[in-house]
Amino acid sequence: MKFSVDHAEGSQPITILRLEGDLDASNFETVIEEGTRLHGEGTSHLLIDLRAVPFMGSSGLVALHSLALLLAGGAGDDLASGWEAQHAIARAVEGGMQSQLKVLVSPDPDSSLARVMDRTGMNRFIEVCTDEATAIAAF
Amino acid sequence: MLPDTPTSLRRSLRIPRAELTDLAGIRGFLDAAATDLGADGLAIRDLVIAANEAVANIIRHGYRGSPGPIDVIVERQPDAIVVRLRDEAPTFDPTTVPAPDLTVPLEERRAGGLGVYLTRTCVDDVTHLPVGGNELTLVKKLAAGERGAAG
Q: What is the DSSP letter of A77?
């Protein structure tokens, strides 16, 4: 997994974390670590660019959810408990779309990433955009 | 026991010491095997998602992070692609994991539920056999246009 970081100005400063490579159980913790590092450096609004991520498993969802909680002032997920993460996602969906983390994906609705987001309801919790300018304007 | 499937309709991969870093290679094998056996892109994506979660759970929870053997077998049946995952971990039947339910109290929740949930939703059938370890069978039915197109 490769990372690069850009910055953009929307209605507030936005950090763009670009990922390259598959996101699965072998490397999702590095995404949490990188997002946590950016948060520690002052990032409050984060756009995660997943357009160069050909595959994402449930561990990727845990990473996204954990960072969303972190940005919202929470402590993140218990990484040992996928079940709890599922429940937390369900609660978050009930709570509506959160505002400080968005993801940017390729426009293919049948990509594995889109299917994972859809099947778990994560796309009702984290806004999924297919265009960078739209994503930045959405913050 | 595996049913009697002609060799031409079966692809297999054995990983003697599977670790999480093997997931990408297993996904690549599944993609190539299912393509070779006549599945279309959408069915392949769902199968890969489902099997990836199941294999990750075998490594993380079955073998508890220590390397262990996993066999991945992909078979073409007349109306479906079947993936069998065999391991030598302690017997665990993921089909018994309850579906996510907000009414379940905290002490009854189990790790791995998110992966199991994805596995179930991406294929048409999931069955488990305790065979001196575990054999997990994932069945993805093919659309009418794909049937009889095995290569």
A: -
Angle between helices B113-122 and A112-119 in degrees, nearest 10: 110
Partners of B30 on chain A (C-beta within 8 Å) are none
- pLDDT single digits (tens) B24-39: 999 999 999 999 999 9
How many Å lie between the alpha carbon of B111 and the closest alpha carbon of chain A?
Answer: 4
Tokens representing A13 are: 């400063």
Q: What is the pLDDT of residues B122-141, one digit of tens each?
A: 999 999 999 999 999 999 99
Q: Distance between CA atoms of A138 and A134, rounded to whole angstroms? A: 6
* pTM metric for this prediction: 0.86
Instruction: Kindly determine whether residue A81 and residue B109, on different chains, have CB atoms separated by under 8 Å.
Output: yes
ipTM of the complex: 0.84
Minimal C-alpha gap between B6 and chain A (Å): 30
In chain B, the residue whose alpha carbon lies closest to the alpha carbon of A110 is B42
